[in-house]
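Sat 14:20. Reprocessing the chain from the morning session after the first attempt stalled halfway. Input below, unchanged.
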Amino acid sequence: MTTARTAIVIGGGIAGPVTALALHRAGITATVYEAYPATAGGVGGTLALAPNGVAALRTVGADEAVTAIATPIERSAMAVGRRHLDLPTLAGVPPLRVVHRAELHRVLRDRAVAEGVPFEYGKRLVDAEQTTSGVTARFEDGSTANADILVGADGIRSRVRGLIDPAAPGPRFTGLLSFEAVARHEVDVEPGTMTFAFGRRGYYLYWPEPGGGTRWGANLPQQRPMSVVEARAVPTAQWLDTLRTSYGDDDPGRELMATSRADELQVAGSLQIMPPVPNWYRGRMVLVGDSAHAPSNSSGQGASLAIESAVQLARCLRDLPDIQTAFAAYVRLRRARVEKVAARAARINHAKAPGPIARTLMPLLIPLMMRTVMDPEKTVADEQRYVIDWDAPVTTEPALR
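Finished this time. Tokens:
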């Protein structure tokens, strides 16, 4: 095991609590520092957990609590105009799970607290100082914290990423604006079915909501990026009018927008992704989750990859003799996998905003796509069947396990 016995984890979202739990299991005491003064408290929309993400949660004993609050998606379909096709499924894996972000935060935090992990709120990181014996985090309120290592689990706008490498790239906009709500309209599909729909002016997806109604998410193409703050400064009633105009010619898009309430509309701003980050660590500081790799939500893997990385980082610190060797091994274990997923998601993003010619040809191209780019054995089998062997020792050999 490395000389690391204590850790500062910056960020209390998804990657932070899982990192603390995994480090705890590896024999390292971690404290989570969150910039906001309290937990998520209902803020945020829905995210997907792929089978590999749930498998990684099993390593830290959080899988059952998470699946208990999630909705399983057993089937998927595609709709282009009036044409609906069932999409092939990947055999031998559990279903995709969709879960409200705030609920996931709560469950992961509760699990970490139950394991003895302390959480400190209102701790916005401003700087960190490294020495040969440790690292000191400095927070906006004037307080400090000391530990052997500092883990940046602080998301796509990571402060830690900038401290590790001031020249590190920032997030990039995808050209899509994201919304979510639950409509009163009931779609005529089986429960547990997620439908990906290409409307005349935008892409959307939907599935029956347990308890009634239909949950939907929409990605509208946009000319210029908008931050979450900018997008939420626009009244939700105005956004809903825009959505009703954009999807007014679509079935069931028209009914979904018409029966949704403005006060329940989740406005997420422009979807963002992280380009490849050259340096994931420096000295005693290291990145995990979206701070290092944030694929588009089209991948369905953002949260799952963050959870995987948290577990793999803990394994490396558990098994390798010094911090630098452990961090290097962690990057070798993760970089190729996460960048491959990000590249696949980027291709899907282009398909979400097809031009008029592409929309015309899409119904003709779907049968071919079903045999090629939509074949799950060719596209997502390696992603979703991936299971981390916690008990296997990590080595410094190139062919890492």
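Residues 323-352 form the longest helix (30 residues).
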